[in-house]
Design a protein that fits this description.
With 100 residues, the protein is of the alpha+beta class. It has 4 helices and 3 strands; from the N terminus they run H-E-H-H-E-E-H. The protein has helices at 4-17, 22-29, 40-52, 76-91; strands at residues 20-21, 56-61, 69-74. A 3-stranded antiparallel β-sheet has the order 1-3-2. The longest helix has 16 residues, at 76-91.
Length: 100
């Protein structure tokens, strides 16, 4: 089970590499290599919380006749929080020892 800090770290990490709209985030979160599972609805709730905390923001974007969509980006405060969470997670890492 993933903690809220793990989920925040994961979303902030995705957004630290590029701005993304909901569909792109959902595709990244569904990738089979992810160890952290965040459902679509929970991702949007967490994005709203991150936005309230000033860690991400969004702009509404429209292309042609398509419906508008929200594009999320990480703020400077979000980058700082991402690095803090990353350091915290790495400090708690314990290598698994296998017998034999």
């Amino acid at each position: 089970m993933s903690s809220i800090s793990d989920k925040k770290l994961h979303l902030l990490g995705i957004l630290s590499s590029q701005d993304a709209h909901g569909y792109q985030l959902n595709q990244a979160l569904k990738h089979p290599s992810n160890a952290i599972s965040i459902g679509k609805a929970n991702a949007y709730k967490l994005l709203a919380k991150l936005e309230e905390e000033g860690l991400v923001n969004h702009v509404e974007e429209r292309q042609g006749n398509r419906p508008s969509r929200l594009v999320y980006s990480i703020t400077e405060q979000g980058k700082t929080e991402f690095r803090r969470l990353l350091r915290e997670g790495l400090a708690q890492f314990q290598q698994i020892e296998y017998p034999g």
